[in-house]
Amino acid sequence: MQPTIYTFLIVCPLVFLAGFVDAVAGGGGLISLPAYLLAGVPVHNAVATNKLSSATGTLISTVRLCKNKFVDWILVLPCIPMALLGSSIGAHLALIASDKLLRYMLIPVLPVVAFYVLRKKNMDEKGGEIARKRQLLLCAVCSLAVGCYDGFYGPGTGTFLLLLFTGLGKMSVAKASGTMKVTNLSSNVAALVVFLLSGKIVIMLGIAASVFSIAGHYTGAGMVMKNGSRIIRPIILIVLALLFIKIISGI
C-alpha cells in the first residue's frame, strides 16, 4: 500500500505514545497495532509494519537494561533460540491467515490481552526458590509459546513473559525484566525477518514510526510517574474501543 499524510498523522503520534506507555507500564502494543489499523493499513501490513517499529523501540529498552546488568545471561541462552523458533512459526502462520480471519480473531483476542496486560500484576520482587534446571526448562518453553504469539499477533508479549518468568520461573522482577527484554527482542527480530522477506512491511511508514517509537521509549524510560497507570490505562481502553468500532463496522 501507499501511505498518505493521513496515515502518518495517525500512526506516528500513537506509536510514540505506545513507546512511552511500553517503557513506563508495558502493553504499548495495545496502542501501536490498533494505530495502524485505525489509519486504514491492511491487517497483514499492519502486523508486519508494527513489528518493525516495535522492534526498534524494544532494542532501546533492551540495551538500557543490559547496561544496568538486569539480564540473567545463563537463563537467556536457551530462551533466545526458542523465542526465535516460536516467533518464526507465528509469523509464517500470520502470513497464510486471511485478512478476514485476522480481523475476526482480533475481536476475542483484544479484550483477553487487554485484561492480562492491564490488570494489577502481583509479582515477587525478590523471586522464589526453584531448581536451576527446572527454571531453565520452564523459561525456555514459555519463550517458545509466547514467541509464537508474538510472531502471529504481538501486543502484550513483554508483559506475558514477565508474568511467566516471575510466576513460573520464580525470577526476581529486576532479572526477569532484563531477561524478558532480550527474549522479546529475539522474537521481534525473527518475525521482522519473515515479514521483510514477505514484502508485507510498508517501509517508509515503518521507518517513520520507528523514529517515533524510539523517541517514546527514550522519553518513557527517563521519566518517573507515580500515577502513570491511571493515565495510561484509560488511553489504551479508548484506543481499543475505537478499534472495536472500526472492525465491527467493517464486518
Automatic annotation (TrEMBL):
A GO CC term assigned to this protein in UniProt: plasma membrane
Which residue ranges traverse the bilayer?
Answer: 73-95, 101-118, 138-169, 189-219, 231-249
Q: Which UniProt keywords apply?
A: Cell membrane, Membrane, Transmembrane, Transmembrane helix, Transport
> Which parts form a coiled-coil structure per UniProt?
none
Compartments where found:
Cell membrane
Question: Is Nucleus one of the keywords?
Answer: no
Q: Does the keyword Iron-sulfur apply?
A: no
- Family per UniProt? Belongs to the 4-toluene sulfonate uptake permease (TSUP) (TC 2.A.102) family.
Q: What is this protein called?
A: Probable membrane transporter protein
Species annotation: Blautia luti
Which taxonomic lineage is given here? Bacteria, Bacillati, Bacillota, Clostridia, Lachnospirales
